[in-house]
Amino acid sequence: MRPDPYRGFRFRIIIDGFLEAGGFTRVSGLGQHTEVIPYAEGGGGIRKLMGRTDFPPIVLERGLSVDLEFQVWASLVHNIVAEVAPEGLLKQSITIQLVGKTHTAAKPDIKKQWLVFRCWPSDYEVGDFDSMSSSVVMERLILQNEGNIITSVL
Predict the structure, then answer these.
(1) Of 33, 86, 124, 146, whose CB count within 10 A is highest?
(2) 3-state SS string for the chain
(3) Could you tell me which residues are beta bridge partners of residue 143?
(4) What is the total count of domains within the chain?
(5) Is 5 inside a domain boundary?
(6) Which domain holds residue 105?
(7) Residues 32-74: pLDDT tens digits?
(8) Residue 4 lies in a domain
């Protein structure tokens, strides 16, 4: 059994169909904002109605991926060869897992898990390369998305 390349990372990223696609040390942007629309009633009262809900970009920082398919997906927004990737390939649902320090494939220790819908990478910044490793270090990956829900809490 090969050693876990993401052992030092507390956040694991799983993309539709890929196994663990990457590990990151920091995640931000999991949330939502719903617009409040004031509505004046005839009797002088004001009601608050729900408007559009927006989901901020999710920012993944200080990460690592050893999965070539993940790296191909992250670069699909602007593919020089194909010009533009089909939306069905580009927008993927992902799972973000917060794992404990004792997490292994044989003994999972998932503390929290979020499902994020229809993500696509708008920014992909690669870190320094190491000639002794085949993995890619990501300084930052920003994912646009169309919603998220928490799917498990311990």
Answers:
(1) 124
(2) CCCCCCCCCCEEEEECCCCEEEEEEEEECCCCEEEEEEEECCCCCEEEEEEEEECCCEEEEEEEECCHHHHHHHCCCCCCCCCCCCHHHHCEEEEEEEECCCCCCCCCCEEEEEEEEEEEEEEEEECCCCCCCCCEEEEEEEEECCCEEEEEEC
(3) 58, 121
(4) 1
(5) no
(6) 11-153
(7) 999 999 999 888 889 999 999 999 999 988 877 767 777 777 7
(8) no
Between residues 140 and 49, the one the model is more confident about: 49
Q: Is residue 78 part of a domain?
A: yes
pLDDT at 97: 87
What mean pLDDT do residues 86-92 have? 72
Find tokens 């390939």 and name the residue.
Answer: 89
Q: What pLDDT score does 24 carry?
A: 85
Residue 105 neighbours by CB distance under 10 Å: 10
Which distant-in-sequence residues (6+ apart) come within 8 Å of 133 by Cβ?
none
Structure confidence at residue 4 (pLDDT): 67
Which domain CATH number covers 58? 2.30.110
Structure tokens at 55: 């989901």
Confidence of residue 154 (pLDDT cuts 50, 70, 90): low
Rounded to a whole number of angstroms, the CA Rg of the chain reads 19
